[in-house]
Amino acid sequence: MPTLGLLIDHPPDEIPLSHLNLVECPPVAVLTTVMPDGYPQTSVVWCDFDGECVRVNTMRGFGKERNMRRNPLVTLLSYDPRGPLRYLEIRGTVIEMTEKGAAEHLDRLASKYAGRPICFFGDAIPARFVETETPILCRIRPTHVTAIHEGEETE
Amino acid sequence: MPTLGLLIDHPPDEIPLSHLNLVECPPVAVLTTVMPDGYPQTSVVWCDFDGECVRVNTMRGFGKERNMRRNPLVTLLSYDPRGPLRYLEIRGTVIEMTEKGAAEHLDRLASKYAGRPICFFGDAIPARFVETETPILCRIRPTHVTAIHEGEETE
Predict the structure, then answer these.
(1) pLDDT digits (tens, 9 = 90+) for B13-37
(2) Cβ of residue B32 closer than 8 Å to a chain A Cβ
(3) Shortest CB distance from A32 goes to which of B32, B57, B85?
(4) How many beta-carbon contacts under 8 Å exist across A and B?
(5) In angstroms, what is the C-alpha Rg of chain A?
(6) Can you give the CATH number for the domain in which B86 is found?
């Protein structure tokens, strides 16, 4: 893809306003952690932004959870499905992984993405799920942000 | 995202037929390489599949090109925009990076994704572009493939 979208000029550790919606409510984002054997490991995630950190949710024992505990260097990418040359890459460091508030955060993400209230861990509890999974809220502090704006086609 | 799509059972180094279209003509895919400082680096790419390897195209000197020459362990993820819980993650090793056929490959990818003939490096040459960029065709041999099928919602 040589289209060479335009780089947005901004402080390297800040998400420019023009691209904030790509972590606030994208369809999904893509999180990459690093495996013990050195391979990157990528999966589809929901995310949001608390003003300082991008937040994702995972479950205790999942591959990415174990990877982040061992190696906090991660990357999150989110592209605009209407024009995927507009995208945001956030390299960052996981500064917190906690059970505290994680279930509520997951409910909020789920509801936001579904566009209707969803309660995984609140009142309407799917018991088997709650018994077997422990959500973990992960906060990623951006260290290097690349914001690409759809540029001229090089054709 | 605790929805826990269903894992497709298949040989670990093969792309299941059910998910082949996610490397044959997805809207885009997402390629992750590893930076010298250990951070994953992710960007949006076009790709295709030659029956053995996933192929992507980059330019000499681009970050991901330098990363792949130093460290051939990469991951490509492609999700279905109609339902992003259907996705394919391919961890693999870059076994070839070559200029040979790279321009033609790039033209094919561009035409495929645009749905009409596009010629970056053929007859209709945008001279400035051709003078300044050297396309590199990269072949990634899958070593660990994860295919996720949209599963039951856990709500």
Answers:
(1) 888 888 888 888 778 899 999 999 9
(2) yes
(3) B32
(4) 136
(5) 16
(6) 2.30.110.10
